[in-house]
Every structure is written in C-alpha cells, then in structure tokens.
Design goal:
Elements (H helix, E strand, L loop, with lengths): L7 H9 L14 H8 L2 H8 L6 H12 E3 L14 E3 L2 E3 L3 E3 L12 H11 L4 E3 L7 H8 L4 E5 L5 H13 L5 E4 L9 H6 L11 H4 L2 H4 L10 H11 L10 H7 L4 E6 L2 H9 L4 E4 L13 H12 L4 E4 L6 H9 L4 E4 L1 H32 L13 E3 L3
Helix pairs in contact: 2-16, 5-6, 5-16, 13-14, 15-16
C-alpha cells in the first residue's frame, strides 16, 4: 500500500487533542512574513528578494494562480501512489528541494539540516555549489538519501572538474547546471543593505575546501581570506559560456545532466541535441531577469517541444500542494521548491524543513485526490482552465 501523505492532517488533529498545535503555520505562504519578523533584514532580503521591482516573482505567482483546477467526481481515489521515476531512480513523490545557497545565513545547521529533512522523507536534496557546508559533509549527514548536485559553472575548468569528481565520489547522482546566472542580477533588497554573503566568505565552502581552487592561491585560505574571496569572485560565473561548452560536462560527469533555467522551447531542443537528460523550467524564482516570462507560462511550450526527449522539471513559484498539481498538469514530471523550505529552516531548523515538506506533500496528496486523480501521471492540461487576465 502506498503511503498517504495526507495522513499528516490527522496527526495534527490528534496532537490537538492534547492541546498541541503546529509550531509553524500550515499555510506555507505565511512563512515569509514570519521570517521577516524573526530574522535579520540581510538574510531575509537575500532569500526573499528578487531582480528589479520583483515583477518576475509576482508574475510567477500570478501565472500559477491564473490556472484553476477542474475537479472530477466519482473516481476511485481511495488508494493513491504519488511516486515517480526520474532517470531510473524511484522517488516517493514528484518533489525535490531546490538548490539554495548560503543557508548558514538562515540557520547554523544550514544545508546539513535541510538535507537531513529531505532524507527523512525520501525527497531528493539538491546541494548548491554556493553552499555554506562542503559537499562531502552534506553527503555524510544524508546517509543513503537521494542527493543531486547543482553546479555554478566556474571560469576555471580545473575547479569545475574537481567539483564534479568530488560530487560523484560523494554519491551525488545527478548534475543540475544553472544556466541563468552568468552574472548577478540587479537585486535592490540586497543592494539597499549592501548585503552579499560571498564577500564575507559565506557560501564559499565548496570552493575553499577544493584542492584545485586552493592551488590558485598564493597563501592558504586561513592566512589570507580576503585573497581567497577575491579569487572566488573572479571565477564564480562565466558569461562567455555557450552550447558547445556542454561537451566538457558530459566528458566529466557520468550521470544525468539537467540544465536549470530553460524558458524557451528552442533552448530545450538545443539541450536535447546536446545530449543532456533534462531541463528545469525556471527563472530562478524571479531573481535574475526582471520582467521575465513567468515560469508557469513558459512550461507548456517547453514541455510540448521536448518532453518526449527530455525530463522536464519545474520551479519558480511553488508554494502549495495545488501549485504542484498545476505544474504537473502543465507538463512537468516533478517540481523543485526553494524559498518555503529556506524560511522553514530559518524559523525551526531541520524540523521547520520537515514541516514544509509534510505540509506540501499532504496538500498535494489531498488536492490530487479531491480533483479525481490517484497518481500524478493522469494529470493533463485538460484538468485546468486558464482565467482571462
């Protein structure tokens, strides 16, 4: 019998019999406001902030809200199976934790706490290149948990090669390559606070622990941390990369390669031609291109163009279980969630991340069933209508 994630609601109600209520809201859209009240303006602004006026982040939400689910009746949804298979890996639900860097600004347990939470529920965890914790340490804390590695593609080939070798040795099974950050966008919330954690050596753990990176330093990191930061800043991103450069990654990574940040169907087709295994339809949660197309508006075209050749995933705006239903109906095989779990981490550590995961999956399970579906595979665009603007 498949696990029913929806049972979490009965667990909450039963705890209520003894006067216990959840430590965090079950409406996950309230977490950002709580985080604003309890955490510092720099860290909260870094997680919550977006490019420009925030118009892209707002468009992400509007695009999901504009689509409405059309429930179907008298279908047998007594037994449900939310599991999916991605690149030969069986997963309990179509959900993974998106790569979010510098999590130590939210909680001292940082990436390790988020990774443990994911592993506890069988949800894949995608570790950011820009993590506060070295990739090997995060892998150790996850045990056998499914873990994937996100690459910010450095200018230095040897550092990139070293990252890939280390990630593979540490049991990361898929490589997510972020394409939409060859430069940092104009982000007013960070600029107004003059807040960039990397300049303080936060979010650089994978680099400062890397032998290829350290080989480029005149002195050890601890002897001249400012020089190490400057070296990092000089290589972090590379706006000169083009499609032929993907061959280098294929030569140095044996597992699935997934390109994150694809919004145009032609780019999805180029990804397929390049021999990669998947794409994430994403605009980086609105953090990179102000005025960008909403991710949910881009998803159907990308899925139509390339879903028969690539595994299509989705992020940017997922906040609720019904958002997951909508993304799958629009053509995604699975979704990534980012900001909500970062807020959960900041508010209650590992337990906060687990709360976010259990709420999302319970609401997804219930919404799926109440819409007349017993598994994600039966969702199609016919299960949605789009409201006129």
């Amino acid at each position: 019998m498949a696990k029913h994630w929806a049972d979490f609601q009965y667990e909450i109600y039963l705890h209520g019999m003894t006067g216990t209520v959840p430590r965090l809201p079950t409406d996950l859209t309230r977490l950002e406001q709580l985080a604003e009240q309890r955490l510092g303006p720099g860290p909260v602004g870094y997680v919550a902030g977006s490019a420009g006026t925030g118009s892209t982040a707002a468009a992400n939400r509007a695009a999901l809200d504009r689509r409405r689910i059309v429930p179907r009746m008298l279908r047998d949804v007594h037994e449900r199976d939310l599991s999916v298979e991605l690149w030969g890996r069986a997963l309990p639900a179509p959900l993974a934790l998106a790569p979010v860097g510098v999590l130590s600004i939210m909680h001292p347990d940082a990436e390790s706490a988020a990774a443990r939470a994911a592993a506890a529920h069988g949800v894949p965890y995608i570790l950011s290149s820009a993590s506060s914790t070295p990739m090997e340490q995060v892998a150790e804390t996850m045990g056998d948990g499914e873990r994937w590695f996100q690459l910010y593609w450095a200018k230095d080939r040897e550092v990139t090669r070293s990252f890939l070798n280390r990630a593979e040795a540490a049991g990361y099974t898929a490589l997510f390559v972020t394409l939409d950050t060859p430069l940092l966008a104009w982000r007013p919330r960070d600029l107004d606070q003059a807040y960039l954690p990397f300049l303080h050596g936060v979010g650089t753990a994978n680099y400062f622990s890397d032998p290829a990176f350290r080989a480029g330093l005149a002195k050890p990191v601890h002897e001249d941390p400012n020089a190490a930061v400057r070296h990092f800043v000089g290589m972090f991103a590379d706006p000169a990369k083009t499609w032929p450069d993907l061959a280098f990654l294929r030569e140095n990574w044996d597992g699935p390669i997934v390109l994150k940040g694809v919004l145009h169907p032609d780019d999805a087709l180029r990804a397929a031609e390049a021999g990669v295994d998947g794409v994430v339809v994403s605009n980086h949660g609105g953090r990179q291109v102000a005025g960008s197309v909403a991710a949910a508006d881009a998803l159907p075209r990308v899925a139509e163009a390339a879903a028969d050749r690539l595994t299509v995933l989705f992020d940017s705006g997922i906040r609720t279980g019904d958002d997951i239903v909508k993304a799958l109906a629009l053509g995604a095989k699975s979704v990534l969630v980012g900001r909500p779990y970062a807020y959960g981490l900041g508010l209650d550590g590992q337990a906060g991340v687990e709360h976010v995961l259990r709420c999302l999956l319970a609401e997804f399970d219930l919404t799926l069933a109440l819409s007349g579906h017993s598994c994600p595979a039966t969702l199609t665009a016919d299960d949605l209508i789009e409201e006129s603007v």
